[in-house]
Design goal:
Keywords: Hydrolase. It comes from Sphaerotilus natans subsp. natans DSM 6575. One of its GO terms (molecular function) is zinc ion binding. By secondary structure, the protein is α/β, with parallel strands linked by helices. The chain has nine helices and 18 strands. It has a seven-stranded mixed sheet with strand order 9-8-7-5-4-3-18, with no helix packed on it. The chain starts with 9 loop residues before the first helix and ends in a 5-residue tail after the last strand.
């Protein structure tokens, strides 16, 4: 592959860039949609007309949609995205490939199984809970371009146990996939309950799935299902599925409080004070036995910093939350989402543990399909 600084004459360099742009065009469009990046179009006139008065709404609600608790919004211009795309070099695939193991679906509760990326099957409190369902080959609005799954699924939707609750942290394509939602809605025994951030229910309604239960939550709001409490927690991120709906739906993570176990899934996030606040908010409940924290999709750093933590940030979030143990997610599954190699996050996480003096077992990653049996609540 020809790299910059190779001494190409100006005309050859121009032709190379033009060819690269043609090759990146379809994939780049799909990536724009998959990440929700592009033009910063905001609320429609109707949305603004019906928005609550500023004095009546929480600080993270705006006339245009939502923002982070620190007042920030993630607004990458098309030029910033294309500049990143045109400068990218495909990282090598892991050699040997990342392993896939058979899940242990007979393991007694509580336990988790990492299916891939941010999709985790958690069994606790008598419920089977699934985070951010993404079972498709691509994390994209189209089937022919965009970030591609390069590690085999250890479980298909048809092989899952009956899912009781699905937690959706935000609407990006690598976290919310239409085909996966339809498959879950059609599971034998009836569709699961979907718990989602504010204003995301309309997306499910548009699917036309009769009788689908969808509950929306704002940050710190909760819903109890069969004795298990689900609380939407704040995160530093953003939302969009097209260039025209930026920040129109909320984003976040979930605290799952069962009698036998307390889990938190942070959702996608940049580093923020949210996690020390979350620890304080739940301190009287005994804290968290396990945290699911993203560790991948962090390069190029300047582009990703505000929206995705790197392993060093993730290790600090583990400390901020005061979790007994953490498991890294959001890595090693989809090629083309970000620039670090798919197997880089575990190495960087190991370095971060050493830097912070954490035991290896305090914050680990799993193999695709691996089931982790968990100790009960303190």
């Amino acid at each position: 592959m020809i790299r910059r600084g190779s001494g190409l004459r100006p005309m050859k360099r121009l032709l190379f860039v033009q060819r690269r742009r043609r090759r990146l065009w379809p994939a780049g469009l799909a990536l724009l949609a998959a990440l929700g990046l592009g033009s910063a179009w905001w609320a429609t006139a109707s949305d603004r007309e019906h928005a609550p008065a500023a004095a009546a709404r929480p600080a993270h609600h705006t006339a245009e949609g939502f923002r982070n608790r620190d007042g920030s919004t993630i607004d990458k211009s098309q030029w910033e995205v294309w500049r990143w795309q045109l400068s990218r070099q495909d990282p090598p695939r892991p050699q040997p490939p990342l392993p896939v193991v058979a899940p242990d679906l007979q393991s007694p509760e509580p336990n988790i199984t990492w299916i891939g990326h941010s999709t985790v099957l958690a069994r606790l409190g008598g419920l089977a809970v699934l985070t951010d369902p993404q079972f498709s080959e691509r994390a994209s609005p189209v089937s022919w371009a965009g970030p591609k799954r390069v590690v085999a699924l250890p479980l298909t939707p048809a092989q899952l146990p009956h899912i009781d609750v699905v937690l959706v942290s935000h609407n990006h394509y690598d976290h919310l996939d239409e085909a996966s939602v339809r498959a879950l809605a059609a599971q034998p025994g009836g569709a699961p309950l979907f718990i989602v951030p504010l204003r995301l229910k309309a997306w499910f309604d548009d699917l036309g799935l009769a009788g689908l239960r969808v509950i929306e939550l704002d940050w710190w709001q909760s819903h109890a299902e069969r004795g298990v409490e689900f609380v939407l927690t704040p995160a530093k991120h953003w939302s969009s599925r097209t260039p025209f709906d930026r920040q129109q739906t909320l984003w976040g993570g979930f605290a799952v409080l069962a009698p036998d176990f307390r889990l938190i899934y942070t959702g996608d996030t940049g580093y923020s004070r949210d996690f020390t606040d979350i620890r304080q908010h739940f301190a009287a409940r005994g804290g968290f036995d396990l945290a699911l924290i993203p560790v991948g999709c962090y390069e190029p750093r300047e582009f990703m910093r505000g929206q995705h933590v790197n392993p060093a940030d993730a290790a600090q979030i583990h400390l901020d939350l005061g979790a007994r143990r953490s498991v890294g997610v959001h890595w090693g599954t989809f090629e083309g989402l970000c620039d670090e190699p798919l197997d880089q996050a575990p190495r960087d996480l190991a370095a971060a543990r050493r830097q912070l003096g954490l035991a290896d077992a305090a914050f680990t990653v799993l193999k695709h399909g691996e089931t982790l049996r968990l100790q009960g609540a303190r």
